[in-house]
Amino acid sequence: MKTEWRIFGGIAAFLLATSGVYGWWTWYSLGYIEWIGTIALLLSFFLSIMVGTYFLVIARRIDLRPEDRPEAEISEGAGEVGFFSPGSYYPMGIALAASVTGIGVAFWMWWLMVAGGIAVIVATSGMLFEYQTGSRRTAVE
């Protein structure tokens, strides 16, 4: 996790510097600060700080992984990584429901936003509980 928080810290530093340069550049060339881009860069900076801080806190709680130790061997990272779904249609359903919600927002159709929001919740819940109910239920160890 050491590497991850350093990457996000570097991205955050870049975004902070870029937002300052962008604000100065627009003020110098246009005579006023272009606020939308400046605020977007600052919000991206804060988002990177949040993710980097999360990785920093997690890195302090867990032992060093093979990726974090320079003297580690490649074979130490071998083995099972985790469970990945072999086939699920729920991500496509979530994307479709989010698209419906986005179209509702774009055309300001409240009924389409509500329908899309409900569909997003249903599809997300289906993906979350996919392997806990029905014929695909996995055994709890």
TrEMBL record:
Subcellular localization(s) per the UniProt record: Cell membrane
An example of a GO molecular function for this protein is: cytochrome-c oxidase activity
Q: Which UniProt keywords apply?
A: Cell membrane, Membrane, Translocase, Transmembrane, Transmembrane helix
User: Which residue spans traverse the membrane?
Assistant: 33-57, 78-101, 107-129
The processes (GO biological process) annotated in the record are: electron transport chain
GO cellular component, alphabetical, reads: plasma membrane
Topological relation to the membrane, as annotated:
Multi-pass membrane protein
Any matching Pfam family: Cyt_c_ox_IV
Q: Which InterPro entries match?
A: Cyt_c_oxidase_su4_actinobac (IPR021050)
Which EC class is the enzyme in? translocase
According to its UniProt entry, the function of this protein is described as:
Part of cytochrome c oxidase, its function is unknown.
Q: Which family does it belong to?
A: Belongs to the cytochrome c oxidase bacterial subunit CtaF family.
- Self-association or partners: how does it assemble? Associates with subunits I, II and III to form cytochrome c oxidase.
Please state what the protein is called. Cytochrome c oxidase polypeptide 4
Q: Which organism is it from?
A: Natronosporangium hydrolyticum
Q: Which lineage ranks, top first, belong to the organism behind this chain?
A: Bacteria, Bacillati, Actinomycetota, Actinomycetes, Micromonosporales
